[in-house]
Amino acid sequence: MATGNAQSIARRVSLIGVLSLSLALLFISGAVSVLLTRVAHERVLSWVGDKTQALVDAMNAMDDTSRTLVQRSFGSFRQEFGPSFTLDETSGELRDWGPKLNDNFTQVDKFAGTTGGVATVFAAKGDDFLRITTSLKNDKGERAMGTLLGKQHPAYASVSAGQSYAGRAVLFGRAYMTYYEPIKNDAGKLVGLLFIGFDLDAFEGAIGKMAAESKFFDSGGIYLLNVGKDLSQARFAAHPSAKGKLLSEVSPEFAKQLAELGEDGYLGSAPDLLGNGRGDNFAVVRKNPKTGHWVVAQVSRGEAMASHWATLVPFWLLLGGATVALGFGLAWLLRNWVAKPLATLSDGVRAIAQGDLSTAMHSSRNDEIGALTRDAEAMRTRLADMIGTVRHSVDSIGTASTEIATGNQDLSQRTEQTASNLQIAASSMEQLTSTVKQTADSARTANQLVSSASSAAAKGGTVVGQVVATMDEINTSSKKINDIIGVIDGIAFQTNILALNAAVEAARAGEQGRGFAVVASEVRSLAQRSAEAAKEIKTLIGASVDKVETGSRLVQEAGSSMDEIVSSVQRVSDIIGEITAAAAEQSDGIGQVNQSVLQLDQMTQQNAALVEESAAAAESLRDQAQRLVEAVAVFRLAAGQNAAPAPRAAAPLAKAPTPASKPAPAAARPPAAKNSPPVARKAPAAAPPPPAQDDGAWETF
């Protein structure tokens, strides 16, 4: 079975099956073991609890026996006294039908000697009872005369109510089974008590012996605690070494555990109070309300479960043997039913993988492996037919791919040339756009200058008009001055005539008129000078008026010329504005043409890149066809099928033309439009990898 370095599927399935089976059996066995362990532990707990309860029942039986005995024994003691009693409350003397009972030990000693018990007669004293005669002795060995019953005594409540009491009582450090009977006078008044009791040392000894003889396995046992009314005062009533000691002194932690004890009386972890030297102890506690004792059973968990673990060992050994047997059986079945048929199928598939399609595969099995073998045979047959068809088609694919590659190379060359021409046209359009833009800028500047000149000419025309108006006003003023000079000239003429007349009159007057003649002469001289000055002023004013008229006429002519200049400048400004608008429209149109040329250039470059990619794809197709020829050549077909054609050498393609160098763009080239960003040419497709060996050729195919 040729499996190479790969691990056998049967071995893996066997391993997985064995592991799964082992895990399942382990889980089931573990669950069963846990369940059995729990049952065994519960059985041990039940056994220990029953044995502990048996001791409690024995204690109760002995307690009941003691109660019955003390009650029956009281009858004989009662017969020693009369039916009624009298009490002298002043002296404290208690009597029946005979002498006083105080310090009379006859009856009590008789009872003690006859039964071995103790007896006492109490006389009522206030709300308590005083021992007036007794055979009971204190811890010093003396009769306990003159001592009170005490309100803390367990019988106090019953006897105070006039009822008898039978039960345990600790008197002077010793436990007794006691019986108290109230005694009354003829009026029915309580006057005292009669008491008998039996020492329980023998009872305690018997119980202690039973506890000491109770064993659990090798080291477990039972000890007793006399709890009474308060667990804090619990003492060991039966114990190998701690009898009479307080539990709180021997093991405070265990005292806390007992204080939290549940109703089931089970403690999963208990201290080693029996000194067995084991730390895996648990405890079972049973309480005896009648006697006030707690029976504690201490058991080692390891010892309790040892027999159980010993019972489980054969079970686990049997489980391990069954697992090994099942594993070997499963491995043998998988090897014969799966591994060997798969190895045969693997050999056939490996032959197909190595190119041998001439070996047929057959299987008569009706399971999945048989179906897989038949499917593999169908695959071999179809693959052989397909290889024959491919061999016929590969040669024509190579020829067609060569022609496509050659045509793509030619198309790529023409596209590159077109792209170069478009780049030149785009550069020229950029230069033309720059020139038109400069012309438009110059026309816009001239328009601004003409507008400034027109404004200046308009202002000059306004100033000339103001000058003409001023000259007219000066001319008018000059005429008025001329009129005034005429008046002055007339006044001077009249003055001269008057002065002449005055001189004539002075001459006529002779000597009296000589002074007046002098004045008249001066006035006449002044009038003549005034007339001459007026003539000169008039002459100057006339000349000024003539010049003013001439200047006014010239200013009017200058105003007319200035109006014509303003009109001409306005017409020039309008013409230059039209030129500016036309230049701007021309610049926009050329810019749009430039953008269109740039877009056309970009699309041409994209087309060139696509052509290059197409050429590379055609070249790759031709190489793939060649590799397909080489790949198909490795297959061996059955007799009667076409042989593989000889590998055909690929004709080298013509080298792609080098794109024409781009002219340097103009300095003022505008940016491309945002809606058509330039697209960089894609790099030609990478050359296909060289033909691989047989496995690689099959993978490529």
Order of helices and strands: HEEHEEHEEEHEEEHHEEEHHHH
The CATH homologous superfamily of the domain at 16-307 is termed PAS domain
Computed over alpha carbons, the radius of gyration is: 76 Å
Q: Uncertain segments of ≥5 residues (pLDDT<50)?
A: 1-5, 646-701
* Strand residue percentage: 5-15%
What name is given to the CATH topology of the domain at 16-307?
Beta-Lactamase
| Strand tally | 13
- The top-level CATH class of the domain at 16-307 is Alpha Beta
Can you walk through the features of this model?
- Among the domains are: 16-307, PAS domain (Beta-Lactamase), CATH 3.30.450; 400-591, Orthogonal Bundle (Helix Hairpins), CATH 1.10.287.950.
- The chain is 61% helix and 11% strand.
- It contains 10 helices and 13 strands.
- The protein has helices spanning 9-78, 106-115, 156-160, 201-213, 247-250, 252-259, 301-353, 368-509, 514-632, 694-700; strands at 86-88, 93-95, 118-125, 128-134, 165-171, 174-184, 190-199, 215-216, 220-226, 235-238, 266-267, 281-288, 293-300.
- The strands form 3 sheets. Strands 8, 9, 10, 11, 12 and 13 form a 6-stranded antiparallel sheet that branches. A 5-stranded antiparallel sheet has the order 4-3-7-6-5. A two-stranded antiparallel ribbon has the order 1-2.
- A hairpin with a 3-residue loop joins strand 8 and strand 9.
- The longest helix is centred in the middle third of the chain and has 142 residues, at 368-509.
- It starts with 8 loop residues before the first helix and ends with a helix.
